[in-house]
Every structure is written in C-alpha cells, then in structure tokens.
Amino acid sequence: MIPVVTPDEMAAVDAAVPVPAATLIERAGAAVAFEARALLGGAYGRRVLVVAGKGNNGADGRVAAGLLSRWGARCDVVDPDRAAAHLSAPTARACDLVIDAAFGTGLRAGWNPPPQPDAPVLAVDLPSGVDAATGFDHGSWRAAATVAFGALKPGLLLHPGAAQAGRVRLAEIGPEIAAGVDAVARAHLLEDADADALAATPPADSHKW
Q: What local confidence, expressed as pLDDT, does residue 195 receive?
C-alpha cells in the first residue's frame, strides 16, 4: 500500500524530521532532474524552462536546473510572473521541456498560468494551481508527468487534479521522511498485490453458503 497524506500531515512530517530543509531540497531537486532527463531522453543539448516560485517548490526547481545544466542542458529559470512573457517569445518554441515549480501544496488560491506550453510539462510535487487536498483545479498546466515527494497527496488521485498530473512518480527523499509518513498516514492507495491479497482464490470445493 502507498501512503496518502494531506498537505497538513506532510508539513508536520517535514517539520519533525531531523534533516535540514536544504538537504531535503537537494534530494527533491535531484529527483526532478533525473525524471526530466528521462523524459527528455538525455539532457545534453536540450532546452529546459524552469518556472520557479519563491517557496520550496521553486527551490527544488532551481536545484534541478543546476543539475541539468551540469549535464549539458540549457536551462532558463523564470519566476511565475515572467512565465507568460518568456513562453510567448519566439525562442520558447525551441523549448524541449517546461518544469512547473511555481507553487506547491501550500497554495491556497489559483494562479493565472499562461496558455499550455507546446513542450511537455513536468510538475514538481503537483501541478501548480491544483489543490493538494481536494484535487480542485484553480488553474494549472496539464503535466505529462509529476514527481511527488515522500507520499502521494489526495489532489493527485482525485479529479480534476489527477488528470492534470499526468503520470505520477513517487520519489523517496530519505528514510526519515518515509518513517514520518508511515506514522501519520491515515489513507493508503491499494496496489495490485494488495488487491490480490484481499481477493484470495477460494478452494475448488467452496460455495457461496
């Protein structure tokens, strides 16, 4: 079973673990960079736009940009307010990937994103504008993939947020986080093996009575 936690539960885990926030950001940013490289089929020579806000999601995006640049990608990092102007520029047509690190689970209202980019979008933790607790879409880009950290959030599983998230990959960012999540999680997503265990094959001579 995969733990599913609310934004408040995840915030409590983050606050309680004895790991510096900077370390968690480095781990999360690395997970984003590896997923971006996989989506791109390699980093060298690729053009990547990172829309990075002021919070931890933005910091994750900037770490990812640094790693991708080290691997040979050309990365532009812009804040959400400048994303529209950047995406409307002629050079944006040559962009191979957009990393959505604008806002995270703490967003309480929507943002007004530019039109959906032509390039595929990789969301950091969840698409910016999707409510992490309910899946309500206040305004977001549809992602090709989302990298979630530590645990799944309800908004990645409930529509319309689930449709906006695309393929979701859960990235482990440390045993401390995993232990904290296991301690607080009240909901879980069943996997195939869990369903098989619940629906055991009855004996051949059994009957409904």
A: 83
Number of domains in the chain: 1
* pLDDT, tens only, 77-88: 999 999 998 888
SS3 (DSSP) at 63: helix
Structure token pair of residue 31: 């997970």
Q: For residues 40 and 77, what is the distance between their CA atoms, to the nearest angstrom? A: 17
Q: Which is higher by pLDDT, 164 or 88?
A: 164
Q: How far apart are CA 36 and CA 41, in angstroms?
A: 9
| pTM of the full structure | 0.93
pLDDT band at 145 (very low <50, low <70, confident <90, very high): very high
Nearest to 123 by CA among 19, 51, 24, 38: 51
**Residue 109 pLDDT:** 63
d(CA 9, CA 169): 20
Q: Which domain holds residue 101?
A: 21-174
Question: Dihedral, CA atoms, 70, 76, 81, 83, nearest 10 degrees?
Answer: -130
In a domain, 119, yes or no: yes
Number of H helices and E strands in the chain, helices first, is 7, 8
Domain of 80, CATH number, reads 3.40.50.10260
